[in-house]
């Protein structure tokens, strides 16, 4: 892979009264050609600003934004327009023209780019088939469901064959089932058309479903960056742990722990499950040897990017020394955390 989008020491500040407030600060980030890159963060974290710096709807206060080898901070408006032509964008509220048909909405960017009518018609027909809306060509946006509107948005964004697609909370207005359909379409856009996609979202499920890598943004800074597998299986910061906790139930939360403490008198430990299967092997062998009984009281295994990870929470019952010896043995193969005595 080669880098397609690069942020080098980028800060974007806005004036707020007399002060300058940084919406994003000191961003160093490289997005590779062909990947689906997720940016997650709470409201106000700076996600939209970061996205809008890629198509120069915002201009960096300092640092450089490099897209396909061109440093946007050195370009004139006319050159920026040609960069923007290679970047499509979709939005939470779809931003379709209500007074135009689906066909005309998709044809619009082609018209602006000066495509002749026969070529426009051929391209729109092709795009309608790709997003599965051939029958809706002459419908108006108000006659479509949310998912169909976003399909039109995607077709319109792809009309001029951009290398990059920016998705700004593109599924946040949709129900879970429609979200899954739209995300599947975005995956096809990436896999079949080779379009690099940057997705900003506050929903970890979106990141889990489609992204290859993810950056966690907090107060304008990237606090974590990695493959979706790494960030989900070992989130390093409390913010990332909270996001991961919204979609994975491997580890008991505070309320679960309280319930477990009330119900179980033995020592309770959580042990990480890795792809290697060693926890299961050691557990089945060692409990008998140490004379410890156990009960599984909480846990879950998730699969992501073709690998498994998870956690098992066990109540251990036996002589204190025997339980200590078992925990020590488990610790030789995985991470074990005592969560309640
Ligand atoms: N044009 C602007 N003028 C002044 N402040 C702005 C402007 N755009 C963004 N900000 C501020 O920058 C910060 C980051 O905003 P941004 O919209 O990028 O965050 P976000 O993570 O996309 O949030 P949301 O999901 O709510 O849109 C916020 O504090 C916001 O108020």
TrEMBL record:
<protein>
    <submittedName>
        <fullName>D-methionine transport system ATP-binding protein</fullName>
    </submittedName>
</protein>
<keyword id="KW-1278">Translocase</keyword>
<dbReference type="InterPro" id="IPR050086">
    <property type="entry name" value="MetN_ABC_transporter-like"/>
</dbReference>
<keyword id="KW-0472">Membrane</keyword>
<dbReference type="GO" id="GO:0005886">
    <property type="term" value="C:plasma membrane"/>
</dbReference>
<dbReference type="InterPro" id="IPR018449">
    <property type="entry name" value="NIL_domain"/>
</dbReference>
<dbReference type="InterPro" id="IPR003593">
    <property type="entry name" value="AAA+_ATPase"/>
</dbReference>
<keyword id="KW-0813">Transport</keyword>
<dbReference type="GO" id="GO:0006865">
    <property type="term" value="P:amino acid transport"/>
</dbReference>
<dbReference type="GO" id="GO:0005524">
    <property type="term" value="F:ATP binding"/>
</dbReference>
<comment type="similarity">
    <text>Belongs to the ABC transporter superfamily.</text>
</comment>
<keyword id="KW-1003">Cell membrane</keyword>
<keyword id="KW-0067">ATP-binding</keyword>
<dbReference type="InterPro" id="IPR003439">
    <property type="entry name" value="ABC_transporter-like_ATP-bd"/>
</dbReference>
<dbReference type="GO" id="GO:0016887">
    <property type="term" value="F:ATP hydrolysis activity"/>
</dbReference>
<dbReference type="Pfam" id="PF00005">
    <property type="entry name" value="ABC_tran"/>
</dbReference>
<comment type="function">
    <text>Part of the ABC transporter FtsEX involved in cellular division. Has ATPase activity.</text>
</comment>
<dbReference type="InterPro" id="IPR045865">
    <property type="entry name" value="ACT-like_dom_sf"/>
</dbReference>
<feature type="domain" description="ABC transporter">
    <location>
        <begin position="5"/>
        <end position="244"/>
    </location>
</feature>
<dbReference type="InterPro" id="IPR041701">
    <property type="entry name" value="MetN_ABC"/>
</dbReference>
<dbReference type="InterPro" id="IPR017871">
    <property type="entry name" value="ABC_transporter-like_CS"/>
</dbReference>
<comment type="subunit">
    <text>Homodimer. Forms a membrane-associated complex with FtsX.</text>
</comment>
<dbReference type="Pfam" id="PF09383">
    <property type="entry name" value="NIL"/>
</dbReference>
<keyword id="KW-0547">Nucleotide-binding</keyword>
<dbReference type="InterPro" id="IPR027417">
    <property type="entry name" value="P-loop_NTPase"/>
</dbReference>
<keyword id="KW-0029">Amino-acid transport</keyword>
């Amino acid at each position: 892979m080669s880098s397609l989008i690069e942020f080098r020491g980028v800060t974007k500040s806005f004036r707020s009264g007399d002060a300058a407030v940084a919406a994003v600060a000191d961003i160093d980030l490289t997005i590779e050609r062909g990947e689906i890159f997720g940016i997650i963060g709470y409201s106000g974290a700076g996600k939209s600003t970061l996205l809008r710096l890629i198509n120069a709807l915002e201009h960096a206060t300092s640092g450089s934004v490099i897209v396909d080898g061109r440093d946007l901070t050195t370009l004139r408006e006319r050159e920026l327009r040609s960069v923007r032509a290679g970047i499509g964008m979709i939005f939470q509220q779809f931003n379709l023209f209500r007074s135009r048909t689906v066909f005309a909405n998709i044809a619009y960017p082609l018209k602006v780019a000066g495509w002749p009518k026969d070529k426009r018609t051929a391209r729109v027909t092709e795009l309608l088939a790709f997003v599965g809306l051939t029958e809706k060509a002459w419908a108006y946006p108000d006659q479509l469901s949310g998912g169909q509107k976003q399909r039109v948005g995607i077709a319109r964004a792809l009309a001029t064959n951009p290398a990059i697609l920016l998705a700004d909370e593109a599924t946040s207005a949709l129900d879970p089932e429609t979200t899954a359909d739209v995300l599947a379409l975005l995956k096809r856009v990436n896999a079949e058309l080779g379009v690099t996609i940057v997705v900003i979202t506050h929903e970890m499920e979106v990141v889990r479903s489609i992204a290859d890598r993810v950056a966690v943004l907090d107060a304008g800074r990237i606090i974590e960056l990695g493959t979706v597998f790494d960030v989900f299986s070992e989130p390093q910061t409390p913010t990332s742990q909270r996001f991961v906790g919204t979609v994975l139930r491997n580890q008991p939360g505070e309320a679960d722990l309280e319930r477990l403490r009330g119900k179980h008198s033995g020592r309770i430990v959580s042990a990480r499950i890795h792809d290697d299967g060693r926890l299961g092997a050691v557990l089945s062998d060692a409990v008998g040897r140490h004379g410890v009984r156990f009960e599984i009281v909480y846990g879950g295994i998730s699969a992501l990017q073709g690998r498994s990870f998870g956690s098992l929470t066990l109540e251990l019952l036996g002589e204190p020394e025997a339980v200590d010896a078992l925990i020590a043995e488990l610790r030789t193969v995985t991470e074990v955390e005592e969560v309640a005595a």
